[in-house]
Amino acid sequence: MSYGRQFTLFNHKGGPNGWYVAFIFEELGLTYENVFPEINMRAHKGPEDLVKYNPNGRIPALIDHGNNDFVIWESNAIIQYIVDKYDKERKISFAPGTEEYYTQLQWLYFQGSGQGPYFGQLVWFILYHPEKPQSVLDRYTNETKRVLGVLEGVLSKQEWLAGNKLTIADISFFTWNEIIVASFLENFDFENEFPVTAKWHKRILERPAIKKIWDERARLSAQK
């Protein structure tokens, strides 16, 4: 399955969550293969055989062939696993047990509980829900902007979310921010409404590893 690469990543060509796992691989110079199972976007469900890698039946899921084919799922658990095990130089992470490590961890939890669900629900109701209830659209639009406001408040006081460098905490927010800002907020000016967050977001995109993977996603998405 891996064609000699260390990892197999079950991903989605147009989705957000698998790609920031790919960012981490690229940043650390780790080899991997993307596998794109057929996903029913309305049901948010993959094929039956995906369940043997992720009991939730969704992507991303990861096989680490260098660790006895260890399988792990949920995007933030995956990237935490990768850096804990393979980022020995702490290029984009902090060492377990340090205060910065737990700050990094809290932002991963917030991304998973705050950004992902609210941004994802906004996309669902805009793209897939048969009705377009304005009250629901308003709720998720407002929650999306509230999350951006949380980032703005913190990044107004410090350059990165955890410690004094870019980490997986920052990278984890990139894909959903990029997707939402580009396509799902009407009459929205990112640079004007959240200027500090917009600059932080741009700095992440300008990293060669991030840009390379994001361009690959755009190319593959265009083939659908």
From TrEMBL:
GO terms for cellular component: cytoplasm; nucleus. It is an enzyme of class 2 (transferase). InterPro entries: Glutathione-S-Trfase_C-like, Glutathione-S-Trfase_C_sf, Glutathione_S-Trfase, Glutathione_S-Trfase_N, GST_C, Thioredoxin-like_sf. It catalyses: RX + glutathione = an S-substituted glutathione + a halide anion + H(+). GO terms for molecular function: glutathione transferase activity. Residues 97-224 form the GST C-terminal domain. Its EC number is 2.5.1.18. Keywords: Transferase. Residues 5-90 form the GST N-terminal domain. It holds the Pfam family GST_N. Belongs to the GST superfamily. Involved in the oxidative stress response and detoxification. This is glutathione transferase. It comes from Phanerochaete carnosa (strain HHB-10118-sp).
